[in-house]
Amino acid sequence: MSIIKMVLVVRMDIGMGQGKIASQCAHAAVECFTKARRGFLSYFTARAWLMMGQPKIVLKVQTEKEFLRLYETAQKSGLVTAAIRDAGRTQLKPGTITVLGIGPGATEKIDEITSHLRLL
Amino acid sequence: MSIIKMVLVVRMDIGMGQGKIASQCAHAAVECFTKARRGFLSYFTARAWLMMGQPKIVLKVQTEKEFLRLYETAQKSGLVTAAIRDAGRTQLKPGTITVLGIGPGATEKIDEITSHLRLL
């Protein structure tokens, strides 16, 4: 297991199709990566993460409430986060929160707040 | 429709699960973005793409042959490309090609080579 990773947490209660889930996860990953590059320490974490082959895990939550609670916890723990809102041009209502990206960050720190979640 | 986009082309003949597809698409998106940032013109394209909200479309192909032909065509057309190979720690044989990222690039140019493909 790698010491740095990114997790992408998908909200399952809004009926996204497979393509929508994939594009929203891609969006979260790019957003988290660009955010990480702007910080001083997180810049090096992001570089290391790239060199390690970008390890990432896709997890799921069942409700918006669960999503928002996790988002808050991740922010408080100082991890890089990105909560993606859909532009709503296709399947969803504009502004619907879809995927939460956390990291790249220390696996230990990310596991502390996400290890109870199930894989997508 | 935006004038710059990224497409993520998923290979459907290897039985990837939803989480695997999402993580491979995220991988392709980050890889394409970092590649684009290293080029002179593509750097500005990548910046513009970010500012436009990262438009991206997820498409599919049914065979490795179709995947490789598209990869070659995209490379010849000068677009940024990234063919993702799975590390093979979980569902797939190590080295299996999974997702092709194309762009960020001019929508017109990308459509020329991908408009025949179906949405995932």
From TrEMBL, chains A, B:
Reaction catalysed by this enzyme: an N-acyl-L-alpha-aminoacyl-tRNA + H2O = an N-acyl-L-amino acid + a tRNA + H(+)
Keyword Repressor annotated: no
Protein name: peptidyl-tRNA hydrolase
InterPro entries associated with the record: Pep_tRNA_hydro_II_dom_sf, PTH2
Similarity comment: Belongs to the PTH2 family.
EC number: 3.1.1.29
SUPFAM superfamilies: Peptidyl-tRNA hydrolase II
Alphabetical list of Pfam families matching this protein: PTH2
GO MF terms held by the record: peptidyl-tRNA hydrolase activity
Keywords, ordered alphabetically: Hydrolase
